[in-house]
Amino acid sequence: MKAPVRVAVTGAAGQICYSLLFRVANGEMFGKDQPVILQLLEITPALKVLEAVAMELNDCAFPLLHGIVPTDSPEVAFKDADYALLVGAKPRGPGMERSDLLKDNGKIFSALGKIVDKVASKNIKIVVVGNPANTNAYILSKNAPSINPRNITALTRLDHNRGLHQLAAKVGGKVSDIKKMLIWGNHSTTQVPDITYATINGKAAPTVVNDDAWTRDAFIPTVAKRGAAVIAARGASSAASAANAVVDHMRDWVLGTAEGDWTSMAVSSDGSYGIEKGLVYSYPVICKNGDWTIIPNLPVNDFIKAKMKESEKELQEERDTCKDLL
């Protein structure tokens, strides 16, 4: 059996992690032959709940779970961590926009970046879940200069998965029929779900859908605003679906994307598609050998291109709002 990897998880007593941690411990993220040590971070008032989560994890008797470190110390949680799932953040409530969270959560991720830089493995792979995720990942990266920016990503797999479902429902098909769905941009209402290159049972999705008005006026806004719809329905942010997306994101990054398919990840822009270099921006990527590659040279129509630039502009404005944290 392989040596265990250390996985730091923030917000570990929260709702997302209550759906997430058991799947990580069961081998769904890193593979059924990869033991894990979970290093679980919470704020001090939540330590009692975190103790209960640790008890339940132990009571599952997962063969791959080789240790649990519950703590309210970031230095302890990130010590020698190989992976980090940054879930903990101030939550978005009813009527709130992600921009409302920017300053408070920016301070959290600025501080975490400094700690990651100091105590984590230099090869750590990080996914930021706490919103606004793209800009939080950017802030974290700027405060962790010894960590390769390629190793700091943000979660748009939830949007990607939402898009898969909406497209499958539209054509009366199955999610498994669809390949090459993608999300451009920010994990916000400016994101750009795009079916231009998607296939459904090998056929071009736009041809199968045959409804440009639906794609433009229903599909894109439904996917982009799905998080707000969930909040309106349950009075709290997406939890189980977000946890599932974290598993999907990290599994594909570590173990590779499926042959003939790609996924959506918010990664440090290399200037592809005219997006400012360094912004954490969602692109279509393939993953192999623990690394990701942006799909190059896709033709982008004027409508999508304009929306991509709107999302870039939002990310630039978020970054500029947090200049004092960089």
Q: Can you describe what's shown?
A:
With 326 residues, the protein is of the alpha/beta class. It has 2 domains: 5-154, NAD(P)-binding Rossmann-like Domain (Rossmann fold, 3-Layer(aba) Sandwich), CATH 3.40.50; 157-320, Alpha-Beta Complex (L-2-Hydroxyisocaproate Dehydrogenase, Chain A, domain 2), CATH 3.90.110. The protein contains 11 helices and 14 strands. The strands form 4 sheets. Strands 3-2-1-4-5-6 form a 6-stranded parallel sheet. A hairpin with a 7-residue loop joins β8 and β9.
Brief summary:
This protein has 326 residues and is an alpha/beta fold. The chain has helices at 15-25, 47-59, 74-77, 98-119, 133-142, 157-171, 205-209, 212-224, 226-234, 240-255, 302-321; strands spanning 5-10, 36-41, 65-71, 83-86, 125-128, 152-154, 178-179, 182-184, 192-194, 199-200, 203-204, 263-268, 280-288, 291-294.
**Helix/strand/pairing class, anyone?**
alpha/beta
How many separate domains?
2
Distance between the termini: 41 Å
Number of helical regions: 11
Count of beta strands: 14
The quaternary structure here is: single chain
**Could you give a short account of the major beta sheet?**
6 strands, parallel
Anisotropy-based shape: globular
Mean pLDDT: 95
The top-level CATH class of the largest domain is Alpha Beta
Compressed to H and E, one letter per element, the order equals EHEHEHEHEHEHEEEEEHHHHEEEH
Helix content: 40-55%
Present the secondary structure layout.
Elements: E1 5-10, H1 15-25, E2 36-41, H2 47-59, E3 65-71, H3 74-77, E4 83-86, H4 98-119, E5 125-128, H5 133-142, E6 152-154, H6 157-171, E7 178-179, E8 182-184, E9 192-194, E10 199-200, E11 203-204, H7 205-209, H8 212-224, H9 226-234, H10 240-255, E12 263-268, E13 280-288, E14 291-294, H11 302-321
Parallel strand pairs: 1-2, 1-4, 2-3, 4-5, 5-6
Antiparallel strand pairs: 7-10, 8-9, 10-11, 12-13, 13-14
Helix pairs in contact: 1-10, 4-5, 6-8
